[in-house]
Structure formats: C-alpha cells, structure tokens
Records
---
Amino acid sequence: QVQLQESGPGLVRPSETLSLTCTVSGDSIRTYYWTWIRQPPGKGLEWIGYIYYSGSTDYNPSLKSRVTISADTSMNQFSLKLSSVTAADTAMYYCARGTYYYGVDVWGQGTTVTVSS
Amino acid sequence: DTVLTQSPGTLSLSPGERGTLSCRASQSVSSSYLAWYQQKPGQAPRLLIYGASSRATGIPDRFSGSASGTDFTLTITRLEPEDFAVYYCQQYGRAWTFGQGTKVEIK
C-alpha cells in the first residue's frame, strides 16, 4: 500500500521560504510523477508542480518563479521550496502521486502551513 | 493555461436523486487526461474518474463520467448519504489545472 506523509514547519514568516518534505512508502519515487497541490482555507485545489521520475519538473506558471521541487531517491522523498511567501500562501499542502493515465491516485493527508509574523 | 469551469457551484439534491456536474475547458483537453475527485471535509481528495470515463479502483458504478468536445460531465445516478461532498475536475495534460469545484449538498 502506497503512503505519503508530508512534514515541515507549520508556521513560516512572510518573505521567507516554505520548505516541505514528502516521504513515500510502499513505492519507489523512481516511477511516476510526484506532485505538490495546495488548498487555501475554504477554497479549491491548486496544482503547484511535479517532479517526474526522470528528474524533470513542471510548475504552475503562476508560481514558477518561486517554486523548486526536488527529489532524494536514496531517502525516497521529494521536497517543495516556495520562496518569498506571503499570507496568500497560507494553505493545506498535499503531496501526491501522479500518473500518466490515472491522474492523481494517491494523496498524503496534507499539512497546514500558515504564513504569519 | 487551460481553465476548467465547473457548474453549478452548488447542487442541492436529496438522497436517491440523480446528480449531474459539469466541467468545461477553455481549450481542447484530451479526454485521456481528465479526472474527477471527491473531497469531504477534513479529508484529502479521492480519485473517482480518470481518462474522462474510467472509474478508479473501488469506485461504485453509480459514478460515471463522459466527454463531449470541451465539455465533461460527472453523473451520480442515485445519491447516497456519503456522496454529499465537493467534486473537482482536473486536466493532467500539460500544466495541470483544477476546476473550482461543485459542492453537492443535502436539500
């Protein structure tokens, strides 16, 4: 059974960098797409970006200048860095597995990140 | 970017009724790369439909999806109490995007 678990600070100060890690168990990140999706309080889902097993990445154009997604295959983890955060970046952040055919088929439980001084 | 517009914003129905949810794309989207998700309060989304019309593992057959050009539809034939939730469509071709969601609430 594939499981994903997000970890990282729940509070980030404005203008700083948000950093989250997703630990994958039950599958290797050397396959599929590994993605970050966020959801501001009371709002809809927003795709942030993904890293493909080959190491290539793709990002939401609206966030591209601030986002970096990387992977550590030795730890079976992938990570998100979002720079210069503002209150608008306050959200539930989900890591998930994306597939070429099936969409996003496995989700982490999500972690809440609040941007506040 | 491909914008997905879902309608209605809220659908008020009674258990046992049929629900029809719409998702319209701003440009051509391959049916192979259109998915629907269900999200309940406090939970992560769950994949229902992929490839516009294929049910994900374990999804009851009262859920079905269809496509016509840039219009996609999720149909729930007989609403069960556990089906009241928010539903999102997503295109996962180039630069993934989500619709804004349709809330299915109890009438």
---
Amino acid sequence: EVQLVQSGAEVKKPGESLKISCQGSGYSFTSYWIGWVRQMPGKGLEWMGIIYPSDSDSRYSPSFQGQVTISADKSISTAYLQWSSLKASDTAMYYCARYQVGAPFHYWGQGTLVTVSS
Amino acid sequence: AIQLTQSPSSLSASVGDRVTVTCRASQGISIALAWYQQKPGQAPKLLIYDASTLESGVPSRFSGSGSGTDFTLTISSLQPEDFATYYCQQFHGYPLTFGGGTKVVIK
C-alpha cells in the first residue's frame, strides 16, 4: 500500500527556520517525484514544486522559487520542505503528494500544519 | 503559467441533483486535467484524471469530459457525502496549477 506520512504540526516564530518531512512507503521511492502543495487557511491549493529523489532534480513554481527549498534523502525515502526564515504568511497546511510526469497526484500525505506567529 | 478558471466558485444543491462544474484553461492542455475532491480537515482525493478517466474506487456517479481548454466535472446524482470542495488541476506543463475551487453546499 502506497503511503506518504508527513511530520507533525509546527508552531514557529517569524524569522525561525523549519524543515518538514514526507516519508514514502509501499513503492519504489526513487521512481516517482514528490510534490509539495500549500493551502492557506480557507483558501485553495497551490503547487509549490517537485523533486525526483533519485537524483534530486527539482522544479519550483515561480511563486515559491527562492522562498523555500525542496530536498530529499533517498536512503530513508523522505522528502523535505524547508524555510530559512519564516513569515506569518507561511501559515498554512502543507501537503506532499506522489507525482509522475504526465500524471496527476494519485497519492497524498495527511498534511502538516505550520503556524507562524509571534 | 497556465491558468485554470473554475465556475461557479460555489453552488447549493440538494441530494439527488445533477451537478456540473466547469474548468477553463488559459491555453490548450489536451486532456492533461484532473479533478480532486476535498472535505474539511482532509487531504485532496483524486477523482478523475486524463479529463475523463475515473480513479479506482471512485463512484460512477462522477464523470469528467472535455479536452483542449474546456472541461466539465459532473455528479449525476448528488449524495450526502459529496458535499465538499472540488478542484481541477492541469499537468500539461510546469508550473502545475490548480483551479480556484468550487464549494458544493447543501441547499
């Protein structure tokens, strides 16, 4: 069974750094991309970017390029989404999802809620 | 970037109603379109991909159609568990994009 398990909710202050994770299981982790999707409170879905864990090739949405870093550690089947300096506007639910070129997101993680508040 | 415009942004309907949601792409995307359902507090769930292919396990009352720039999601007979928000997504090119969502509420 394909599963994507995300790390738990985080509460941070503006300016702090953060790295959240998404661990895949039940499939060959290096054969599929992992994507990240943001959902701000009460708002829609926004595609942030994707990474191919086999070689760490990545693509970013222009809206998120330079704002976040997507990485992966294939040895532990885990992808990451990282911020170096959080802002209040980063408060959102973040989902990871499995992606294959030319296909939709068939499998999703349960989401990680990030709250940034002073 | 390819923009997806969904309409309506919300609709009210009764159990048993036929419901139609549309998604228009700013440029042609062939059939590289998916529909997702999201309920409060849950991750999105894939319903339809390649514009009209039903994801495994999804009830047959859901259907999709269209190609190029105009797409439709239809629920033939709305059930209580279908009250949710629906999103279209294109996977024709980067950046991948989502429509703004359509919230289906109980009339």
